[in-house]
């Protein structure tokens, strides 16, 4: 650490977002990079459900401010002695690690193996909307569901994306479409259904109604893959019914209820979890795959294949605006991403 101070937004107590103390403006020491860490000057951040889940009320107090935030776009200020991928002045974007202080601060330390080169076609705010959702979507499709990046391999195959208009759904829809899959999205409101179609969904069904009758009405008996981005237990029976024999289901949403895995047995269905923090939390040997994936996303953005999902930008990055962003996300009705820029 240096004796230099930096601005940040943090919390000492876990409180409802209406409480002004739920997120507060603080000053903390500016950190120094060691090992493979980059010190990044933060230009923009975005907010994800993980932020309000971590911040949600609980009977605990922090002795030092806890800093949240797992989507950053900025510029490398300094590099640790073991860095080989980036140098000072590089523009970067990344989601960071849940086990370390988050990016809601003027400067931020991150392992270079989970950082990508920022898309050149986007400004910092647009780029900050992408990392966490892109890594989650990419890992879900390629690593967990085992979907090929080669369009020819996916001819005639279908994927059902539950919650297609949300942050992860917005990217997963575009990636799945680009991979050559027929994409069926779920949405429940005209604006979210319209957004999903704009991003490439071939068909949109309502996730508050039984899936199979809606699929059949659209010409599908079942689907080869399901990506569940909303309430795993609520959709469990519908997913078990809609999935093809030997199909695969991936979910990113933890459940408080026991799931009846036997529903998947007769069809020999695979069920798999995705958490984009797994690699950084456990320092897995393949951590660098996130660096590669973010660079791939940046290339697809610059080629015009993937568009950013920024929907609302707030300025500056401070506690008042972050409380506003958390409150918006907690409604569960945001379409696209809420981004904050500039300290």
Keywords:
343 residues, alpha/beta, Quinone Oxidoreductase, Chain A, domain 1, Rossmann fold, 2 domains, 7-stranded mixed β-sheet, 6-stranded parallel β-sheet, 10 helices, 28% helix, 29% strand, globular
Overall description:
With 343 residues, this protein is an alpha/beta fold. The protein has two domains: 5-130 and 278-341, Quinone Oxidoreductase, Chain A, domain 1 (Alpha-Beta Complex); 134-273, NAD(P)-binding Rossmann-like Domain (Rossmann fold). Helices cover 28% and strands 29% of the residues. It is built from ten helices and 16 strands. It has helices spanning 49-55, 124-128, 131-144, 167-178, 190-198, 211-217, 232-242, 278-281, 288-302, 319-330, and strands at 5-14, 24-29, 37-47, 58-67, 72-79, 91-94, 107-111, 115-117, 158-162, 182-186, 203-205, 223-228, 243-251, 270-273, 310-314, 337-341. The strands form three sheets. Strands 3, 5, 6, 7, 8, 15 and 16 form a seven-stranded mixed sheet that branches. Helix 7 (232-242) links the parallel strand 12 (223-228) and strand 13. Helix 3 (131-144) packs across helix 4 (167-178) and helix 3 (131-144) crosses helix 9 (288-302). The protein is globular and about 65 Å long. It starts with a strand and ends with a strand. The model has no long low-confidence stretch (mean pLDDT 95). Residues 18-340 form the Enoyl reductase (ER) domain. Keywords: Metal-binding, Oxidoreductase, Zinc. It holds the Pfam family ADH_N. This is Zinc-type alcohol dehydrogenase-like protein. It comes from Cohnella zeiphila.
